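Reference record
================
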Amino acid sequence: MPAERVRSTIIDTPLRALIENQSQSLADAPYVLAARSERRVSYAQLEARVNAWDHATTWWNMAPSDRVGLLITDPIDFALCFLALLAQGRWVAPMDPTTTYVIGPQLNSRIANLRLRGVLSDRPAPFETGVDWHQLSDLPRESGHQNLSTHVAGTNASGGVILASSGTTGTPKIMALPTAQLLLTAKQVALHNALEHADRGLNALPLWHINAEVVGLLATLVAGASLTLDDHFHRTGFWALADKCQITWINAVPAIISRLSTLHEGEVVPPRIRFIRSASAPLSPALLGQFEKNIGVPVIESYGMTEAASQISANPLNGPRKIGSVGRAVGVAVRVVAMANATPGQVAAANEVGKVEIKGPSVIKRYEGAGYEDRFDHDGWLDTGDLGYLDEDSFLFLVGRSDDVINRGGEKIFPREIEDVILGVRGVVAAAVISVANDVFGQVPISYVQLDGISSSTPVEELQIATKEIHDALVAAFSRARRPVNINVVAQLPAHATGKIRKKDLGTGAVPVLFQEHVS
């Protein structure tokens, strides 16, 4: 499908009309959604399912503004429900089935925080939730109705997604993103990645996160392409699956890229793969270089957040990429605001570190509830909480979070700079640098490291050899004042489903330290 098709198809097109258009014009397409199990869903089947559920959900007796929680494990079922509910003009709150359902009281807490009227799930309610609980098995598979949009909210209802931030550095923030906003970003992703009808993506990222919803599902839909969904990342047989499904691009995070950066015996990378997209967490330059050298597939590093419907910037697909940069702004205005002795809103000079702020039609205008009004200035610029700089070519480089900066006796230390050096050491799987209180300097950095093949039974001698290489790399890269005071080896760093490390869990004793070495 030519790129022009993407532009003409989705401009100001409601999701329901988009699904209908794609069903009619792509009748010969093999599928829109696929799974590891070889289950396939065509564009026509997607449209039929939307219409069938349109009729069935009228008995819910919910107003268009009411919110439906989506608690479904199977990725194909999740995707169908997600798209169908959005197409109806409903507000959908995707929920994590690996935690919110299993941990009982937290489910009711999440229902209350998201202000849900009902939940659609693939299992019975585990206990009294206080809301209507609907099961996927109650919805019909087919429908004789051709157009049932009037049964719900009508074609003018917007609907959208209700999401909570990951809460990496504090209390999760609740935000509402209208469907039109999601489609706008999906269009930008499809155009930036030059997605066409023949493209087949592979997504093993959790569908209850904005990345998989927009970059995976909606970008595929607006491009008229195909997407294979996996319930989670499987390292064993990954390249064989990509070859079998004729994958042309992969939606990934650095944790996945790290595990794919070395080929196992007998593995071959399918030649049709055009690129692998990295998002959701920092990607170290060393890992990017190792992956491209060993695998031969370009990595397109990007940057996004829920508040921007997933994408803020990305490196060019075709053209010069800058290692260590998250690329140029894509469909969003980005500026870096000076911090030291600056007037409010003063733009930083090229290569000057400051606060990263964003603004645009795909960026939210407010958070729900009180307490976050100070994140927006009077002109509508949103403070992302990230620190970085724009170079002379408008490429954005991130150096860390504003609340992660370590103030050691007045000297500002950015954890990401240290983490990138550690991640460049052979055998390091993940790294995190945080601050601890110090009587002399106020704060000092310490590091946590996860090593490949290391467990609680690993001999101390092996741990000493591994940490010695990290120690030497830190000594070579930083002055003594900027080095972490120690290296803590752990079996597993705590992380969200997207691979973003939960730093607030470190330094509390909740993560056992297998071995510690002082850095001189």
